Amino acid sequence: MKLKIGIYWGAACGGCDVAILDTHEKLLEIADMADIYLWPVAMDFKYSDVRAMKDGFLDVALFSGGVRNSENEEIAKLLRKKAKVMIALGACAQLGGVPGLANMYTREDILKRVYLESESTTNPGGVLPLESARADGHDLDLPRLYNAVKTLEQVVDVDYTIPGCPPASLQIYSALGLIADDMLPKKGSVIGAGDRALCDECPRKKGEKTITKIYRTHEKLPDAETCFLEQGFICLGVATRSGCGSRCIKSWTPCRGCYGPLDDVADQGIKMLTALASVIEPKEEKDINAVLDQVIDPVRTFNRFGLAASMLRRRRT
Amino acid sequence: MKRIAIDPITRLEGHGKIMIFLNEEGKVDNAFLQIPELRGFEKFVEGLPIEEVPRVVTRICGV
Amino acid sequence: MAFEPRIVGFLCNWCTYTGADLAGTARVKYSPNIRSIRVMCSGRVDPVFVIKALYEGADGVLIGGCHPGDCHYQEGNYKALRRYLLLKRILPEYGIDAARVRLEWVSASEGERFGHVVDEFTEEIRKLGPLRIKESLLESMKDDVAHHGEEHQAPTGEAR
Fold first, then answer.
1. pLDDT at C154
2. Which residues in chain A show pLDDT less than 50?
């Protein structure tokens, strides 16, 4: 029996879908074991097709992208009904992802900037999108833009998560293999990733960390072998799940946390704050502050992918 | 007045829907392309360290 | 009913908690607004405890540790200081007044001083007012619901 799967995207970039396509020839194996009943990037199924399905018709729904508007939430709930298993695919579905950074602003801030203020926009009438409007005698509607980005599990029950931005293609393939072989672990698990921090798979040499100066990534050339954090670069590997293959590290770039937190970590961003503060060397308040002055954008660095999932979730309004 | 919805449009990156309105004779009276998505990158990149911007704006589109 | 600040205190066993205990046995009168939680060392205090306390309804959080150099575990209080100083920097970005989190060194013999610290901190929080993170979060997201076929105007702008 072939699996029936549906693949969807909320507030997404398509990178997770490309990651599925990037399984290359393994895509043929995926096509052998599954029939796809929804995949907007690649196939012409419509929402009406999904609404017409019986509940539980799909074996698996893979949902990437965050929940930024009412349509994202509606389709998430629709797929939850129509699928036996709901999987959060990628950092946006799991944590809100990069679009979650919008949680430092309100929807009004966003609408103003995008439609009225941005330098490349010509909008002399000051027109903003509306949820319902009348144009040339016809009624039109748009989804409601939410004031905050939500994660998938903040709107529906999520059975499994495949993390990453994007998830490594081979990890998606192996996660689909678990589904096909009916070897999924207990519900709620993260699959297609490790259960230790990135440091465990990182090829760089780790020693004692005593940071006296913090560098932005362009301020000096890192040496070839030593841990980035030890050299004073902020690297979120200490607070991030392994499984990505250290692709950023291997490209001489410190980790920004896209694989999300480890099990039992309530807040990845605060975990990173703790980790970084713990290895700063000075003991006197003014010396500590001199080093911390060099951490230039802590909130959006520690929560680069996870702001929407963090405990505080957004800037207070 | 009949209304046909193509929702979502497919085989591209992004969200879109097309609303087609037909008159009594069944001819197209008007059609509208709507984009039911907005993430606001233009706003939330403000204030990011410049060297981090490439790592953020690559998430506008993964295709 | 006037606002009564709710303060959570993470107090280290060897110094501050013992100092608070002394305040008790010496019958020092001080504001009853603090809920004290004993930890073995101020270095045990993960900033996530502080954030969780604020999220779950605390208006202020006090971290109490041994004076620098006196930590029972040698350097735990320095870790607490580093984490605290970084935590203070991020709170205003979320719209939370950094004064709501405070780190104090209070030794086991400083019972009176513990009372003063709590009194002072309570009054500071009283002036800042209730924090109510959860309430303001829910308020800001109250319209973030999926609707069906309801007429709804966006706050600004008009259709042409």
1. 34
2. none
Distance, first Cα to last Cα, chain C:
50
**Within a domain: residue C138?**
no
Per-residue pLDDT tens digits for B11-27: 999 999 999 999 999 99
> What DSSP line would sit under B4-62, residue for residue?
EEE-S--SSSS--EEEEEE-TTS-EEEEEEE------HHHHTTT--GGGHHHHHTTS--
pLDDT in tens, C24-47: 999 999 999 999 999 999 999 999
Q: Please report where in the chains the tokens 């004692």 appear, as a residue.
A: A208
- CA distance linking residue A114 with residue A187, whole number of Å: 40
> Which domains does chain A show, CATH number per domain?
3-99+147-180 (3.40.50.700), 107-146 (no CATH), 194-311 (no CATH)
B24 lies within 8 A of chain A by CB: no
Closest C-alpha among A42, A115, A287 to residue A62: A42
Tell me, yes or no, whether C112 lies in a domain: yes
Chains that touch B (3 or more CB pairs under 8 A): A
Q: Shortest Cα distance from B52 to chain A (angstroms)?
A: 9
ipTM comes to 0.95
CB of C81 within 8 Å of any CB in chain A? yes
The reported pLDDT for the residue numbered C151 is 37
Name the domain count of chain C.
Answer: 1
**First-to-last CA distance in chain A?**
51
pLDDT band, residue C148 (cuts 50/70/90):
low
B63 touches chain A (CB under 8 A): yes
Pick A11's closest partner by Cβ from B13, B37, B48: B37
Please state, in angstroms and rounded to a whole number, the distance separating the CA atoms of residues C156 and A108: 8
pLDDT above 90: residue B29? yes
Q: How many helices (H) and strands (E) would you count in chain A?
A: 11, 9
Predicted confidence at residue A4, as pLDDT, reads 97
**Structural domains of chain B, count:** 1
Output phi, psi for A265, to 5 deg.
-100, 120
pLDDT at residue A317 in the model: 86
pLDDT digits (tens, 9 = 90+) for A207-261: 998 999 999 999 999 999 999 999 999 999 999 999 999 999 999 999 999 999 9
Helix (H, G, I), strand (E, B) or coil at A88: strand
Interface contact A273-C133, CB threshold 8 A: no
Work out the average pLDDT over C87-116. 98
> How many C-beta atoms surround the C-beta of residue B47 within 10 A?
9
Adjacency order of strands within the sheet including C60-65:
C34-39, C7-12, C60-65, C101-105
In a domain, B63, yes or no: no
Mutate to test the interface with B, among A9, A49, A103, A117 (most CBs of B within 10 A): A9
- The Cα–Cα gap between A5 and A15 comes to 18
Q: Tell me the two tokens of residue A34.
A: 């599954």
3-state secondary structure string across A160-173: EEECCCCCCHHHHH
- The answer to whether residue C89 is domain-embedded is yes
